[in-house]
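Q: What does the predicted 3D structure of IS481 family transposase look like?
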Amino acid sequence: MLNSNDRIVKHKLGLLNLAEELGNVSRACKVMGVSRDTFYRYKEAAEDGGVDALLDKNRRVPNLKNRVDDATEQTVVCYAVDYPAHGQVRVGNELRKQGVFISPSGVRSVWLRHGLANFKGRLKALEAKVAEAQVQALERKKLDDEVSGEIETHHPGYLGSQDIFYVGTMKGVGRIYQQTYVDTYSKVAHAKLYSTKTPITAADLLNDKVLPFMEDNDLPVLRILTDRGTEYCGRPETHDYQLYLAVNQIDHTKTKVKSPQTNGIYERFHRTILDEFYRITFRKKLYETIQQLQEDLDDWINYYNTERTHQGKMCNGRTPMQTLLDDKQKWLEKALSQT
């Protein structure tokens, strides 16, 4: 059985089809008992919105003057979510204590507009609010951890942190840059000096020091975190660093835009190497070449990795190298479980 809308649409479509078959609008309107104005209104609606546009719609326009102001409406919604068991009369009484005046029927009207008309709907809104608050809290916690350097890392080799550090200007050589790599789990570090900062020097550190070291210790490098500098980011098919990562099947993660502090691991390492190595060695010795400085840097890095205890979360007073060797078993157990 056709409902009223179906019959109305059939009548309107019949008028349009009849006019097309007869090729005469006036005759079709006379047969169907409608005016030419009505015909053209139906035709325009069908052309603009299809068959759905021919449905009868409730033309009643809500009287916005009868609605409460936005501030009161939001107060009612918030109260309904916070106290879902309260009825509309009690809501009106409680809000009056806060200086918000709205009748019980006004409360119900607000509820109806926001799907809060029954207790179940208000409970559902409360659950959604709590769930959203929990998600926001977790996101804030994650951001705070990242800012503090507490990033996700599960075993040596799981995530490396790489960055470039400006050492200074050497007479006869020019600017000196240090490419730095720190294993975020064990805090084992590698560093190499260059006179330029380019994608090829970023890849060279990995190729010359990092990957050989990890291979000697039977550990992979699964992922590397860098900032968004041009040394590390570019078109994968033409960028030397990106190509090197792809060839060695290393995933690349970038720090958040305008948030370099998310790579806090190497930031702390750079502060340590600046205070404990560069500021001391430049006052004790005059360097003429990068190679001379690199030799002393290698000695200090070896001391940092194998002798200097680290108070980081994973090291807990062990040296970075001890941490790497002791916890390497975690990676092996995980790899075996996956196979």
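A (community wiki): The structure tokens above were generated from the sequence. The CA atoms of residues 178 and 225 lie 17 Å apart. The chain is about 55% helix and 10% strand.
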